[in-house]
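Memo to structure team: turn this sequence into structure tokens by end of day. - J.P.
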Amino acid sequence: MEITDFFPEQGHIQRLYCDKCQGHLDLVFSDFHELVTSVDIEIKGLPMLHCESCDKSFFPDDSRFAVIHLHEQAYKKYSNKVTVTRNKTNQDFGFGVAPFIYDSDDYKYIPGLKRPWDEGFLTPVFFKREVLLKYDSSPTYRLSFASTTYGEIRRGDDFSMPFGINKNGKVIMWLGDIARLPDAEQYYLRSENIESDHSIGSEFYDGQIECIFTDLSKEDGLFKNRSTFLEACFNKFGIKIAHLDSEVFDLSVSFNAPVVDTEKERRHVADTLNKIYLESFDNKALGGVISQLGGDPKSLGSIKRLQKVIELSCPSADIPALMSPFYILYNLRVVYSHIGSKQSEQEKLDFVISRLGLGGNSGLMEIYPTLVEKLGESYKRLTELLR
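Reply from structure team:
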């Protein structure tokens, strides 16, 4: 290699995206050993940006400068070999009252985080995913999602905290944001705090650092509409009618659209959608709202209870039509999970296909996108009614 290879091209800015596939890069610590313009340079633990998909690495700016500096020092000392072991920075940025676990190298080497004011503010702090469940289960807090991996924690007008979920399922927040929270909140977060895995590429990073807001996938759009609907219910009734429990959380983050129509995939899709969008409703909470509105929840299942809540709140709207996608989803699960007789299964499948407005021979690849779209539309329209 030539030393000139380490000088970036004019106008080039190293970003957190792979030049080849445009995927997010992770920060890694590699052993660098190259002959650079007649100097044998070996650096143990050099920060690099790595694309897992392409198995390709890129130099962060400060790592480029480190190689250039070592090469310059070697020339000054008339040496043709340099061997160093890099020590981690381990800098305490002084934010917050609790001793949070974080890696200052993330701030220094991940593109877009360093800035000339509030040094360390944008240091990523990592948490176990369970940290979100406390906020979701408490009536004091509101947990809302812009997508399945980008959301916000709020407590009235007291504070607002953006968060992201990386590809490894870990929750990420900014150190500077955390430091603005009440002391008690900081100590709670510290109890769920874990070591950095140096992976912050996510919709959270794209939106917060790069100001990139791409069109949501159908799945992300549906989950966002669910979150907005639950928020509207809480604002109107003062009760959380569903919870982001551990299973729903895992399913929503890891779920992908089907790519093949097989019996196994049909069962997986139907079961997953059912757990996220039907079974996550809290029957007891829905019953309480119905009683609060003067109705009787006795003998009603979760979908019927949800329908009753909306009917009692918005008597002039065509609620059965808006609730139709929920019943379609329920019937799809019955069909694809083989619950009942073959004749009953076929009748329910015919019901699903006809209610979705599809052709008679439609399979999973036609049913799935149409159902997801109609569920999203129902959530959106129900939210508008409650507001």
